[in-house]
Amino acid sequence: MEPIPFRKDFVHHQDSKLSENIRELIFGMEDGMVSTLGAVTGIAAGTGDHKIVIVAGLVVVAVESISMGVGSYISNHSVKQLEKRKLYEEEIEVKKYPEAERAELAEMYIEDGWPKDMAIKMAEVAAKDHDLMLREMAYRELNIDINKDINPSQGAIVMFFSYIIGGAFPVSVYLFLPIIQAQYGAIMFTLFGLFILGAFTTKFTKLKWWKSALQMAALGGLASVAGYLVGRLADFIF
Questions:
Q1: CB of 37 within 8 A of CB of 224?
Q2: Tell me, what DSSP letter sits at residue 10?
Q3: What's the pLDDT tens digit per position in 121-166?
Q4: Is 6 part of any domain?
Q5: Is residue 99 part of a domain?
C-alpha cells in the first residue's frame, strides 16, 4: 500500500500551535482594531482634543485587552469543566448500563451509515474495552474529543496580546499626526491592518486571500463610520 504523501499545503498536515488558538488570535486582533477605531474616531469627532483621544484610546486598549483575556479564560475554563462533567456522567452510564450503552452506540454507528451487522459487531468490540467505549460514546454522543485538551491559560494569553496588537493600529496614528489628519490616518491604517489580517486567515482557510481581506476591511469600515456618526451626534447634542 502506497503511504499518504506529506502535503505542506494541507492545513491538517501542519503541526502548528498557532492554529490551535486561531479563534483567539483573529477575534482578539479584529476586535482590538474595530472597537478601538470606533472609540477613538467617535471621541476625536466629538471632542477634537488630541490628548483626550490618545489617553482614551490607551485606556480602551488596556481595559479591553484584560477583559477579553479574562473572558477567554473563563469561557474556555467553563467549557472544559462542562465537558469534564459530561464525561463523568457518561462513564457512570457506561459502567452501570453497559448493555443499553452498547445498543446506543450501535444505533449511532448505523445512523452514521455503517451496515447494521458491522455496527453491532463494532459496538460489541468497543464494549469490551472500557476506555475505548467511553472514548467512542464521548465522541459520538457528546461531541467531545477526549484526546483534545482545552488550555484556557494559553487562549487567554493569545487573546490578551492579540487585542493589544490590534488596538495599537488606530491609537498609534494619533501619536504622530495632528488630530484632523489622524482621524483619517487611523481609519486608513486600521483598514490596512484588517485587510492584512483577513489575508492572513487564508493561511488556514485556504480561501481566496483578497475576498477574506476585503470582507474583514469592510466590516472594520462600518465600525469606523458608526463611531464617527456617534461622535458627531454627541457633539451636536452637547
A1: yes
A2: S
A3: 999 999 999 999 999 999 999 999 988 888 999 999 999 999 999 9
A4: no
A5: yes
